[in-house]
Amino acid sequence: MTAETFRGTAALEDLKIVLLGGLARVSDKHRRILLAIVKIIISEFGWDYLPQIMPSVEGFDCSNTASAVPLARALLDSVYVVAKRFKTLNLCPTQEKVVACQTLCTHLPKFFALNDMYVFHLTFKVFECCTETFQQLSAVKQQTLPIPVALVDSWLTYLGGFPQAFHAAAVASGEDGYRLYVKCVKRIGSICFSILHDATKKKKAAATAHHFLKNFSKPFVQMWIQWLSFCLESKDRAMHRKSEIFALRFLKMATADEQLFRAEIQPVALQLLEKQLFPFLCFMDSDEEVFNDEEGLQEYAQYMLDENVLTGEFSQRQAASNTILAMIGGTKSFHDPSLLMGVLQIIHTGLSSVDGTEESAKRTFGFLHLLGVLRKQIRGIPDVWNGQMEVVLSTSVAPLIASPHVFLKCKAIYICQRYSKIPWTQEASFASFMSAMAGLLQDPDARVRLTTIDAMCTLLEMKRARRYLMHVLVPLVNECLGFLEKVQTTFLPLVLNYLAEHFAAELTPVLDRLVGALVQQFLAAAFDMTAQEQTLGADDDLRSYETLGLSSFQTITAINNIIMSLDYNKAALTSMLPDVVRLLTFVFQRADSFDYMDKAIEIFQHAAFMAKPIPECLWNLFPPVYHCVMNSGTGVDYFSKFEGAFDNFVSNSPEAFLGNAQVMQMTFAMCEKMLVGGVVANDDDISAAPQLIEAMLHQAKHCENPALMSPHLSGFVSLLLRALVNPDNQKRPVIVRMWLITAVMDAFYFDAAATLQIIVDSGAYPHFFNGYFEFFSAAINADQATGKKNKKNRTEAAEVLSTLTLLFRKVNILGLTSLLLVVTNPANLPANPQSASFDPAFVTAAVKMIHFCIEENFKMYTPRCKNLEISIEQVRSGYEEEKEEDYDEEDMDLEEDQEEDLVNAANDDHDEEVDDEDGVMAEATDDYYTPIDKICEVDFYGQWVVPVRSLLASGQQPAWGATVSSLMLGDAAISQAREASQKYIHLLALLEKEQEADHQRRSVAALQPAV
Fold first, then answer.
1. CA count, 13 A, side-chain hemisphere, 237
2. What highest taxon heads this organism's lineage (predicted)?
3. What distance in Å separates the CA atoms of residue 42 and residue 82, rounded to the nearest whole number?
4. Residue 1011 burial by Cβ neighbours in a 10 Å radius (0-12, 13-18, 19+)
5. Average pLDDT of each block of 10 consecutive residues along the chain (1011 residues)?
6. CA dist., res. 688 & res. 739, Å (int)
7. Which of 372, 378, 379, 888 is the most exposed place for a label (fewest CB within 10 A)?
8. How far apart are CA 212 and CA 207, in angstroms?
9. Rounded CA gap, 740 and 724, in Å?
10. Torsions phi, psi of 24, nearest 5?
11. d(Cα 81, Cα 89) in Å, to the nearest integer?
12. Is residue 228 within 8 Å of residue 252, measured between CB atoms?
């Protein structure tokens, strides 16, 4: 029976009666089972039984404690199940839940008379739902308290006094009683933190929050300071974790209100830090669990990630760190800057009193942690950052990396990493520091080596440090590979990803083994994830699954970075191709590989780019990709990326590609599906089809056997013509039609006579040319004053001009010139009478279009040549831009309102940045490499200009002659444009040559002994 068929039946009503009646008669354990059923019915059928049981709350008799306690527990449990839904905004009608909460707040206090800790806990849970409901009233501009002031005051007074009043009795009641007591305090912490957060952070806080801040916040600050003292004296620290975090968060929030800060925090800030906050920074029992298990590398790797994230509050150490930062961070104008110097003095005294004992080491751990937390604040004090920190690091921190206590050694390594980018003034000290850090890769303790691996990535960001660390790159990778088999984490793949991205040349000796290990790691993780998908349920299972997913993504990213770095190391690529193909086959054959498809295609694309000719193992990937596009549908969403790989196939093995009938059939089928198959796809993926056709035409034109393309020309040109008139494509942005038209221009460049004949035979003449010249009318008539046009036409014309990139202009020059060489020479015309009478107006328009493209390209070549010359000089000199160090992602002590601003800022559309220095703008087609890159389009145009000038000089006047004669560019203009184009082509080739030479120099230098 489904939920819908069960709705409204007598059976459902009977079940409700049985459940409500049974809740008061069963044990606590069985009641939890019944409440789980009640929750399902509430969720599925909107059951609100609160009006039915509210009279029982109002008339509850607490005089007979023995019988009242079980009834109170059952009643409050039942109330909480409904009231919990009040906390979710708009889940229940506002007025109804406000009335219910007003009634509950009035009658709940009577349950305190039962003096039962379980009843206390349930009462606080229900009251929390009420306070959350009242805080929501700020959204409806509630200006008065929702319940009488006296009632509010009595509640808050009781909550504030509860921890002290019941502490002694709870301690004496045994473990179970004390555990319930701590839960009560934790619930109080949740209530008052939520209220104070609204009072200090919301611009329009509820009246309840304002009342609390004005009248009760000060005693609550004292109460939570006292509670932290209670917790620190307890032997079972783990039990108090959540209540401690709420207490710490409350104190942090108290620093956001000026009066509260000045009255309760500022006068005792340093004392508060030393007695109640600092102990949470020290090495604790929870840390010992990680360090005592010598085989627990997996747990330690997660511990490293958790400990080094300063923005969360999932542990007492994180919460205490954030509270300290809030006290001294200076995010408010009323904060006291002198507190920071006081804290630094505490750290200095602490680090100066290390005596080698374990207890001292645990406290030193806390001082180091505090030093790490304050990095951003210390950077704001020039005298400390620029001078004193070098002394502190050299004399107080660096020596601790030799500590016999592994936990202290690891923390010292982390602090050395955090402060490694200070402005070192003594090269000898810097060299000694780097040498000591590098030596830790040989430490016998695996945790130390793992921590050092993380630190090395930061150190290697400094160009100054690399001369001291290059010799450890290969050992560093070897260490990472050794840990990959033992630790399942995102951390190691992230490190390998960084190393592969920045130091592939230096890692040449181990790249082959590195890729093999990473591929094996990826496939093993994928196998484990598939197995876990069947058993997902518990939070731990989900966390493990997510970790595997993130680790797999970092792994395939690292493989991608390695492959991308092999531009000048074809031997290495050849040796690792079998592993790469194994990886790609796995991803392409899984329709649900969305998380990895992007990176897999990039690997596929670059492997095909490097492999010349394309080896058999890569050809074997063509059918799986074809299936991915045509059958699974997944490939449609990635077709623009697949096109890049196909382009590389036809570029590196043009004869093998164009001469393989099966490959050409598959290629045509994929292009047809994308262009006229009615697919739902992004514009980039649609545009990829004409790009692929262009690639084949370019390569065919310049390969040893161009005739291989001729049998397929009619099919592809006809497909482009169909795509141009397809209604779906006509609705798409200009860029899609630009690619389609440019592909036809490439067909003219490949074989103008045959292409023109195809256009005539298909009935597209003169319609195609009318459409072409109308599309580019803004370029053709650029030198003429235009009349009034409607807004749509003006907008589209401007978009056409902005989309007409250097590459598009170059292709149009080559295509139109090829066409002119045919249609202006009677001997070259096809036999068809219609093409023989080629419209002279088209000739004139074509010349105008060519001239516009030549002039626009000339404007771009000059500044681009300047930039290329700068880039070549930088490669020759070994110049590398230093990473900006004014900001560190770990320096995040943001308040919650600032966090919101950061999130909003992160959503700004700044993903695509363009370099417009010296008038040069990056264009979408800049990374599109073709054989025509080496063709000077002005020289090619000259092949038509020279004979036409001779023809006109001889006295012959074709129909287009007079107009074209008046349009001809002068010799000086043509010469300038030719020189600029040739220089640009030359500099591009020179830059590539210099980059290859630089790679070779770095590879050789990495094999030299360390300095």
1. 16
2. Eukaryota
3. 8
4. exposed
5. 61 72 75 82 80 90 85 92 89 90 96 95 96 80 80 96 95 93 97 94 86 95 96 89 96 94 94 96 91 82 76 84 88 84 94 91 97 93 92 94 96 96 93 95 94 92 90 92 82 84 84 91 85 63 75 88 81 91 92 84 93 93 93 88 94 95 97 95 95 95 94 98 95 94 97 94 94 93 58 73 92 96 69 61 93 93 91 82 48 41 34 43 66 89 86 73 77 90 92 84 63 47
6. 8
7. 888
8. 9
9. 7
10. -85, -5
11. 16
12. no
Of 965, 944, 645, nearest to 816 (Cα)? 944
800-830 in b/e form (b: 16+ CB < 10 A) is beebbbbbbbbbbbbbbbbbbbbbbeeeebb
Q: Angle, nearest 10°, between helix axes 840-877 and 971-1006? A: 30
Could you tell me the two tokens for 632? 């699974």
Give the relative orientation of helices 149-172 and 217-233 as an angle to the nearest 10 degrees.
10
Whether 779 contacts 852, CB under 8 Å? yes
Tell me how crowded residue 75 is: count the other CB atoms within 10 A of its CB: 20
How remote is the C-alpha of 630 from its chain's centroid?
30
Kindly give the residue spans of alpha helices, DSSP state H, lying in 440-490: 446-460, 463-469, 473-484
Which are the contacts of 588, defined by CB distance < 8 A and separation ≥ 6? Answer: 600, 621, 624, 625, 628
The pLDDT of residue 906 = 32
Q: Is the separation of the CB atoms in 490 and 551 below 8 Å?
A: yes
* Continuous segment of H or E residues that includes residue 645: helix 639-652
- Closest by CA position to 76, among listed 25, 132, 36, 24: 24
For residue 969, what is the DSSP state? Answer: P
Residue 185: alpha-carbon gap to chain centroid: 38
How far apart, in whole angstroms, are the C-alpha atoms of residue 644 and residue 601?
9
Angle at 285 between CA 283 and CA 288, to 5 degrees: 75
Q: How far is CA 308 from the centre of its chain?
A: 19
- Burial classification of residue 689, based on how many CB atoms lie within 10 Å of its CB (0-12 exposed, 13-18 middle, 19 or more buried): buried
Tell whether the torsion through CA atoms of 905, 908, 911 and 916 is positive or negative: negative
Tokens 């950052």 correspond to what residue?
385
Q: Coil, helix or strand for 926?
A: coil
Alpha helices by DSSP H, listed for 7-113, are: 10-23, 28-45, 50-58, 65-83, 94-107
Torsion region of 463: left, alpha or beta (phi above 0 gives left; psi -120 to 50 gives alpha): alpha
Closest CA to 126 of 212, 187, 193, 38: 187
Q: Residue 87 in contact with residue 129, Cβ under 8 Å?
A: yes
Neighbours of 345 (CB within 10 A): 11
User: Tokens representing 366?
Assistant: 């806390």
Is the Cβ–Cβ distance between 983 and 861 less than 8 Å?
Answer: yes
Total residues belonging to the chain: 1011
From 274, 208, 214, 217, select the one nearest 251 (Cα to Cα).
Answer: 217
Q: Please state the φ and ψ torsions of residue 27, each to the nearest 5 degrees.
A: -70, 170
* Cα separations in angstroms, 66 against 61, 78, 116: 12, 20, 10
Identity of the amino acid at 679: V
**pLDDT value at residue 829:** 47
DSSP-derived secondary structure for 682-701 = -HHHHHHHHHHHHHHHHHHH
The number of C-alpha atoms within 13 Å of 944 and in the hemisphere containing its C-beta is: 26
pLDDT, position 926: 63
Cβ partners under 8 Å of residue 112, min gap 6: 119, 120, 123, 158
* Three-state secondary structure string covering 208-256: HHHHHHHHCHHHHHHHHHHHHHHHHHCCCCHHHHHHHHHHHHHHHHHCC
Contact indicator for 496, 514 with CB cutoff of 8 Å: yes
Measured CA to CA, the distance from residue 360 to residue 350 in angstroms comes to 9
For 297, 314, 482, 597, the CA distances from 489, given in Å and listed in that order, are 10, 19, 13, 21
Check if the beta carbon of residue 504 is closer than 8 Å to that of residue 561: yes
